[in-house]
């Protein structure tokens, strides 16, 4: 059952094409309440804000390096958030490393 919820949470950024990339890390951080999870959430929020600013600056996608930068932000926000939601959960007790 744990893997089903992890997979469904990973589908959020994939289904929204990165638009909802901070959601899985926010859920992980809220449930686990660890500093590292909140840092990951903040990182995905910064990535999301950069992506939104990039879209506002060049809504047509741009060409050359501008397009490459937009593509990298899209891939990292989408795939990175999905992988984080799948791999961040740990079955170890909180005291163990």
In summary, what is this structure?
It is built from four helices and no strands. It is an all-alpha fold.
Model description:
73% of the residues lie in helices and 0% in strands. With 97 residues, it is mainly α. The protein is elongated.
This entry's quaternary arrangement is single chain
Q: In one word, what is the shape?
A: elongated
Structural class: mainly alpha
Helicity, as a percent range: over 70%
Query: Describe the biggest sheet?
Result: none
| Order of SSEs | HHHH
Instruction: Report the average pLDDT across residues.
Output: 83
Give the low-pLDDT segments.
none
Tell me the total number of β-strands.
Answer: 0
- Distance separating the two termini: 24 Å
Strand and helix layout:
Elements: H1 2-15, H2 22-32, H3 35-57, H4 65-87
Fill in the keyword field for this structure.
97 residues
